[in-house]
Amino acid sequence: MTKSVKAQPGNLFSQLDELLGRRALLKGESRTKYLELRKIIARLMNPEDVFDAIEVQEIVDSIWDSQRFQKLAAKLVDAEFTNALKFLTDSAHGYVSENTEKWIKANRDKAQKSSMTDLEFLKKIGINSGLVLAKSMLLAADDFSALDRLASNRIAARKTAHAGYTRRKKLQAKEKRRAAKAKPQQQILTNDKSLANDNRPTERKNKSLNKSSPDYDSWQDD
Amino acid sequence: MAGRLSRPGDPMATDKQIAANRANAQHSTGPKTAAGKRRSSGNAFRHGLSGPLPNDELTVTATDAIVSALFDGADKPHEDATAFARSQLELRRIRKVRHNMLADSAHESLYPRELRRLIALDRYERVARTKSRRARQLISKRRNSSSDS
Predict the structure, then answer these.
(1) Within a domain: residue B11?
(2) Out of A163, A183, B29, B87, which could bridge B132 as a Cys pair, Cβ 3.0 to 4.6 Å?
(3) Distance (Å) of CA A84 to CA A89, A100, A108, A128, A155
């Protein structure tokens, strides 16, 4: 019923792209890298028809999406960097004293003019990059959990797709084995049927059956 | 004209107050024109994914294209094949909405509200994927039974 013509994975995917449209990528994402990933997964899974290709595509998409969310998580931390700096340099939160806060306000502009980065400047008062990063991560924690959930949804989707694919492949292999087993039996049955329809005398019938065996009569004569 | 809210122990509203309330109510009864009503009917519309796929010409053509590409022309396409094709279209629709959401966020990172919406989109996708998987299972069952017979 379904089209079961074996095709090259590349052809399958181009057929799939034609049918369902090419995977849309965001600005800054590389199409070449995406195709490379798809090629690797296709080589591992060896899709034989369009249905297989759809499943491979799903797995590739879930991997791509997880990577995308990881990048977004990194961006979240970067976005909270300024807020973390504000928090750490505010004496109300106990990381620096009031005097230090005043000193920071007085000298920050100077430091920026002398092309000193914020981290280099804060190092002078004992706030290192690790502390800023930790604070940024804490501030982004709520959004992290959302991204984590999105990523775990992708992992679950990938697992389901892979399990379905493996199950189907196993069933296909089982069917093939069963078909291969059934073939010789069918041949035997057809042989039996041809014998039943054979109207020749019994002697001639046996002779034709034992064609490959040695001719015992002639051997005895010798 | 404006009457204040009644409190426990207040005397019952007078006729004047009741009339004022009725007159005020006429000022806030929503859109009157057809265009206004149509516009306000879409106030809660976000992406339209909670409803089924539309049965318009475009969807029907796309469904037929997928069915004819995946299944032999000699066999009459059965309802599982159509269900499979429609689930694929639904998945495509959800992914398009997600892509637009991600592409539209002009800033570097996403706001928590957008993240919550992305999670909600995942729920729609899960449902569509389940539909697709079930349709595929039914198709392979049908194929096996036809090959056995």
Answers:
(1) no
(2) B87
(3) 9, 17, 16, 12, 31
> What ipTM was assigned to the predicted interfaces of this complex?
0.71
Distance CA A57, CA A42 (A): 9
Contact with chain B for residue A59, Cβ under 8 A: no
Alpha carbon distances (Å) from A191 to A182, A204, B48: 14, 17, 64
Cβ-Cβ contacts under 8 Å for A19 (sequence gap 6 or more): A50, B65, B66, B69
Q: Say how far residue A167 (Cα) sits from the centre of its chain.
A: 16
Question: Which tokens hold the place of B13?
Answer: 């509203």
In this predicted structure, the answer to whether residue A218 has a pLDDT above a threshold of 50 is: no
* β-bridge partners, B71: A2
Instruction: Identify whether B132 is part of a domain.
Output: yes
Domain count, chain B: 1
Q: Are A119 and A108 in contact (CB under 8 A)?
A: no
Residue B71 lies in a domain: yes
Q: From A17, A54, A56, select the one nearest A38 (Cα to Cα).
A: A56
Q: A72 vs B144: CB contact, 8 Å cut-off?
A: no
Q: Looking at the DSSP assignment, which residues form a beta bridge with residue A2? A: B71
pTM of the entire predicted model: 0.70
Which pLDDT belongs to residue B8?
Answer: 78
Sequence-distant (6+) residues with CB within 8 A of A128 are: A119, A122
pLDDT in tens, A59-113: 999 999 999 888 888 888 888 888 888 888 887 887 888 888 888 887 877 777 7
User: What is the residue whose two structure tokens read 């979240």?
Assistant: A76
Q: Classify B48 in phi/psi space as left (phi over 0), alpha (psi -120 to 50) or beta.
A: left
Is B99 part of the contact surface with chain A (CB cutoff 8 Å)?
Answer: yes
Q: Does residue B102 form part of some domain?
A: yes
Please indicate if any CB of chain A lies within 8 Å of the CB of B109. Answer: yes
> Are the beta carbons of A19 and B96 separated by less than 8 Å?
no
Q: Give the distance from residue A145's alpha carbon to the nearest chain B alpha carbon, in angstroms.
A: 10
If one counts every other C-beta atom within 10 angstroms of the C-beta of residue B21, the result is 13
Distance CA(A100)–CA(A92), nearest Å, equals 12
Domain limits for position B129: 53-148
